[in-house]
Amino acid sequence: MAPQTMKRYVLKHRNGVEGLQLETDAPVPEITSPHEILIRIKALSLNARDVQIAQNTYPPPHPIPENLVPVSDASGEVVAVGSGVTRFKVGDRVAPICFQGHYNDEDPSWSSVTRGLGGAIHGVAQEYLVSDENDAVAIPSHYTHEQASTMTIAYSTAWSSLYSHQPKLQPGQTVLCLGTGGVSLAAAQIALAAGARVILTSSSQSKLDRADEILQPLVPKSPRDGRPVPNVLQFIDYSKVEQWDQEAKRLNGGRGVDFVIEISGQGTIARSIRSVRQGGLVAISGYLTNYSSIPQDIIEEDIAVNILYAAACVRGVFVCNRSHQEDMVRAIEASGMEPVIDKVFDFDNLKDAYQHMVDGKHFGKVVVRL
């Protein structure tokens, strides 16, 4: 039985990490509908969006509530169910989906966007959460809660970029992943597991070396000598190669890549478009620069000209819907892939986890254990 009170964080102001305040005697939410479940949150993970919301640099398409309970990515255990619940039982391990109500449509409806955890509505930085049974998915059976807490945003966004829209990833295609953040590393894992080629970029050779070590087990081995198949996994250090779009084409045999996982935005979008083949997809899922400082002329070159001459598909990508997320979980279980976790913090040290993100010290996901 759940206690009467719990710990949770609220954003008292949005002027930085110091706005996070820990409440130790918040009321535990109660099930009020036959189809609701009560989840004991076991772990959560941070995303760039969480930091941007705390810093007031995120341009939400909806009002952000005062005293928001932040964070959208978590894993937990069902501890109580309503009388009409059929999808889960007490003891099941689940993750709430980010856009509540986003079940089957490829793109989130406005009603589900305005029910986004940790932004439009209260999030998961609390010990207990009530959710409709349809707004959660079972986590991979081999995952710990710390690993599963990375699934709802990073893996789901990567899956959406590769499979939720046209064109869909096919074996033998090439995916260019920008950077070594959670979405890019997840996309690299998913692509390799699907038999695709991956080119990954970073300005840090040490991060590229670490990515190589982590991703090599997913590279297929030659049946002749058991060695990794050459050119399936390649890297670009863009601190040394300014024209990394041309380098990506060179590494891909002179052809444009099939997919670009674009997570930065300002200063990279033009090169991302130029690196993709005709009809390929540039999936824009993030914008790591300060939203409030975006100039009206967002890039130094005419973006329309770049898209026109590349004949590229360029689209914004959100997390995938619940149905696709369940497909993703099955793929994770079949491949055995595991998320890249940089560091795990205790819940009482959530501010330190945020600061770790702000400082850009992380490689992969920053996780908080409850």
Short description:
The chain is α/β, with parallel strands linked by helices and 370 residues long. It contains 11 helices and 15 strands. Helix 4 (151-163) packs across helix 5.
pLDDT < 50 runs, ≥5 residues: 290-300
Total beta strands: 15
Oligomer: single chain
Q: Structural class, judged by helices and strands?
A: alpha/beta
Approximately what portion of the residues adopt beta-strand conformation? 25-35%
N/C terminus separation: 17 Å
Would you kindly provide a written description of the structure presented here, covering whatever features stand out?
The chain is an alpha/beta fold. 26% of the residues lie in helices and 25% in strands. It has helices at residues 48-55, 110-113, 145-148, 151-163, 182-193, 205-215, 244-251, 269-275, 303-310, 322-335, 350-358; strands at residues 5-11, 20-27, 36-46, 73-81, 93-96, 128-132, 136-138, 174-178, 197-202, 233-237, 257-262, 276-284, 313-316, 341-346, 365-369. Strands 3, 4, 5, 6, 7, 14 and 15 form a 7-stranded mixed β-sheet that branches. Strands 10-9-8-11-12-13 form a 6-stranded parallel β-sheet, with helices on both faces. Helix 11 (350-358) links the parallel strand 14 and strand 15 (365-369). The chain is globular and about 60 Å long. 46% of the residues are buried. This is Alcohol dehydrogenase. Residues 16-368 form the Enoyl reductase (ER) domain. GO terms for molecular function: oxidoreductase activity.
